[in-house]
Amino acid sequence: MQIYLGLGSNLGNRRDNLRRGLESLTQAGVDVVRVSPVVESPALLPTEAQPEWNLPFLNIAAECHTDATPESLRSEIKRIEREHGRDNADRWSPRPLDIDILVWGDQQIRTPTLTIPHRDTHTRSFVLTPLIALQPRLRLPGMSERSVLQWSTENDEHIPLWMGIVNITPDSFSDGGRFTDWQSLERELDAMLAAGVHIVDLGAESTRPGASAIDASTEWQRLEPLLVPLLERLAGDPLRPLVSIDTYHPQNAQRAIELGVDIVNDVTGLRDPMMLELAADNAVDWIAMHSLSVPVIKGETLPPDRDPLVSVEMWLEQRLEDWTRAGVDPNRIIVDPGIGFGKDSLQSLDLLRAAGRLRRYDLRVLVGHSRKSFLTNLTGADIAAKDFATVGMSLALCAQHVDILRVHNVPLHTAAYRGWSEARAASRERRAKLQTG
Fold first, then answer.
1. Between 3.50.50.60, 3.30.70.560, 3.30.1700.10, 3.20.20.70, what CATH number should domain 2-156 receive?
2. Residues 358-373: tens digit of each pLDDT
C-alpha cells in the first residue's frame, strides 16, 4: 500500500529526531521511498499554553509503502514515539517526535482510534507544503477532488521552499567569479544549510543581458568539479536539501541526473525535443521557465499592449499540451514565469504581483527575482539594497502562495520569513478551535 506519513519535532535536536524517526520506521518494515524537504512552522498552541512551549516545529512528509494494516501501523508509530521520548503528559507541550498517517492509498478511514486523512490536513501548511513537494496533484480521499496544491491556496499560512542560487560563472551579474572552487562553494553551502535552505541550484552559464552563450562542453567543465563534491557532501542524509542543475543542454542534464541531482532547471522551458524526452523518462523534477531568448537579448520584450501574465499563460497552455503529448508527469513540472527574461521592468513587476495565479494550472510555481536588474530603479546598483528589496518581494510572493523562491541571500530570507510567519500565524483562539474541532 502506498501511504504518506508526516513527521514533526520541536524539542531537542529536531533534525536528528526526524532522522531517527525515519530509521525506526524502516526498521519496523515501512519502506520509505521519498522524503520531502524539511519545513519549519510555528507551534500549534491552545489558549492555556505555557510561553516556553512556543518552539517552532520542523516537519517532513514521507512517501512510503507498507504491508501493515492501518491499526497495526498506528500501534507501531505509538511505540516509536515513546521510544524516542514522547510522553502524553500534556498534549500540546513540546515533543521530540510526532508521527501521523496522512494518506492511506485512496481510502478514507474513520475508526475510534484513526482518522485518515486527518480532518484538518487540508488547512495545515506544515502538512501541505511537504506533500506538495512530493506529489502536488495528490488528492485527499473523501475531501473533494481538490489537489493538495489547490487546498494550500486557501490557507493563509503559506510555507515556501527556498532555493539558494550558486553561480559558478565568471560573469554573472552579482556574484560572478565567487564560486570557482569547492572551498568557496562549501563556505556558501554551510551558510545555506544553517539557514534551512531547501534546494541548492548550480548554474555555470550567465544568462544576463549581453552575456555570451557557452557550449555544453564548457558548461560541464565548470559544473562537474563542484557538482560532484556537492553531491558527495550531501549523500546519505535523508534530510539533505535537493540539488538542482541550471542547464538547457540535454547532455548535461543527463549527466547530472546520472550523478544524482533532483531537479533540472531549464530556462528555455523544455523546448528542446531531447530535453523533453529526458523529462518523460526520468522521475526528477523539471523547472520550465518562460523566456524569449537565452541569454537575454537586450530590448526584446513581450508586447507592451498585453498583460504579461496573459502572455505567460498562453505560453504555458501550449507547453502543457506539448508536455502531455510527450508523456511528462505534471507532478514533476515546476513553472517559472521568467522575471527579466524578455520582460521590461514594469512587466517584471506586473508578473511579480500576479505570479501566484499560475497555480491555477495545478502546477508548482517558482519565481526567480533576486537582485534582478529591474530592481535598480528602486534601489540603485548596491547589492545589499537589492537583497533587502528582494526580501520584501519574497514575502509578497509568499502571500500569493508561490511554492519556490529562488534567491541569492538565503540566510536573510529565512530570518525575515520566520518573523513574518510568526506574526501572521493563526491566533491561539483559532488554533485551539482547529485542534479541538
1. 3.30.70.560
2. 999 999 999 999 998 8
